[in-house]
Amino acid sequence: MTMTHTLTPTADLAADIDDVARLLTPDGRRLTDPELDRWVADIDAAALRDLYRDMVLVRRIDTEGVALQRQGQLALWPPCQGQEATQIGTARALRGDDFAFPSYRETGVVYARGAKPADYVLAWRGEEHSTYDPHDLNTASQQIIIGAQALHAVGYAMGIQRDGTDQVSVAYFGDGASSQGDVNEAMVFASSFGAPVVFVCTNNHWAISEPVSVQAKFPIAGRAPGFGIPSLRVDGNDVLACLAAMRWALDHARRGAGPVFIEAVTYRMGPHTTSDDPTRYRDKDEVESWRRRDPIARVEALLRSTGDFDDEFAAAVDADADALAAQVRDAAMTAVTREPVTVLDDVYAEPHSGLEEQRTWFSAYLGGFAGAESETAPEGVGR
After folding, report:
1. Measured between alpha carbons, how far is residue 350 from residues 127, 334, 346, 354, 361 in Å?
2. Three-state SS sequence of 16-43
3. How far is CA 228 from CA 36, 215, 260, 261, 286, in A?
4. SS3 for 183-239, per residue?
5. Is 352 labeled as catalytic in the residue annotation?
6. Is 53 one of the annotated active-site residues of the chain?
7. 217 neighbors 11 (Cβ within 8 angstroms)
């Protein structure tokens, strides 16, 4: 099966946001699609409520992350508001033994793979290199180097081939990363070796302050066939369409048919990170138009139309979100920062003389700041 949706070139990508595969309209109406429907035939009201709950919890984690950074408890936070459907829809399609390679913004993917509350915040607080063991979640550490994880995912997929199993590797990256050599090199390797890998490009329209039109004059999904990789352009704010697309892609890769490329068209509602001010480069009318496409609101509208959403369910989800937010906040607020010199502890498996020299030098350097840290550090940070 080859998906054929929306690979028509256009000079104006902003005007092309509706040229996507979709199962759920922004106002919550269920559409039919002959290619996608069969991949979500099992999604009943209960399953749809679970997807809704997932997205609400991810948004609450994100809100808490922003608040903690503003309070000085985190050094940085990359908001994912508006992208919950892409992350939950694709991640919930994965099997437990599949391996995900997320970027720094894939909070929802890490959540869906089983992350604990502390896993969301301790790395952004600078406490740990990676706050979870990648092999516990079958999810690599969130990659901050733009596009680097695409090559890692393909390498892992080629390892799967040599192991003779039917796992699938998944690379998540943004529209800006599609301009990186790493991503294009990864697609060459994946195609040449028929690697079981799915590329998920989250087109959120902005790579920091650069619009997607700088990265691509045509739909990004249209690039993949040039590498010999089938692709699909999907509504990234439609959790059902994202789930269906990912199930199709995983099936394709799992049965040995090679890599797949998904472009999920969504929007980054917040700043690139908490160090960014998007009002300097984005038009407020554009942001408001995407607010009306909210991925959570459309699922709620569908559930209400079928009588499967009531105040009791809403209250239960809100209570779950409050509880998780409290755990995330507590993980950050109660973290005990290690002594700076311990940053050298995990560099090498075995100690050696060069490392000891660095430790001696760094300890002497830190000694020059004796007393200054306790006088200047905010409450709860660096103490």
Report:
1. 22, 31, 9, 11, 19
2. HCCCCECCECCCCCECCCCCCHHHHCCC
3. 22, 21, 9, 10, 35
4. HHHHHHHHHHHCCCEEEEEEECCEECCEEHHHHCCCCHHHHHHHHCCCEEEEECCCH
5. no
6. no
7. yes
Between CA 302 and CA 27 the distance in angstroms is 8
Beta bridge partners of 265: 203, 235
Tens digits of residue pLDDT in 179-210:
999 999 999 999 999 999 999 999 999 999 99
Count of CB atoms situated within 10 Å of the CB of 315 = 10
**Is 281 marked active-site?**
yes
Q: Are strands 197-203 and 169-174 parallel, antiparallel or unpaired?
A: parallel
What is the tens place of the pLDDT at every residue in 133-174? 999 999 999 999 999 999 999 999 999 999 999 999 999 999
| Total residues belonging to the chain | 383
Specify the pTM: 0.91
Q: Which of 105, 233, 272, 329 is flagged as catalytic?
A: 272
Strand partners for 199: 171, 261
